[in-house]
Give the backbone structure.
Amino acid sequence: MPMEPTVIHHPPRAFHSTLSRLLEIESECPECPEGQPGLSSRCPDCGSVMVYRGIGRLGSGTRVYYYECVHSHREVHSVSIVIAE
């Protein structure tokens, strides 16, 4: 039986403090890690599919898949999903 992934919701922040500051066309935005279509995330605020930004590390050193949803230049929501080792 597969375990539910651990999802961490981060507080919203301004666009200038996001990982990627490129404008992307919707069709170009990745929704999940390559080869893992079941590992997408929905925005906790608006319910849209979030953009997958890559693998990151939390302050504790835990590796995570990182997602963002841009609402405006002042409000970017982000979620991390812990990578099961």
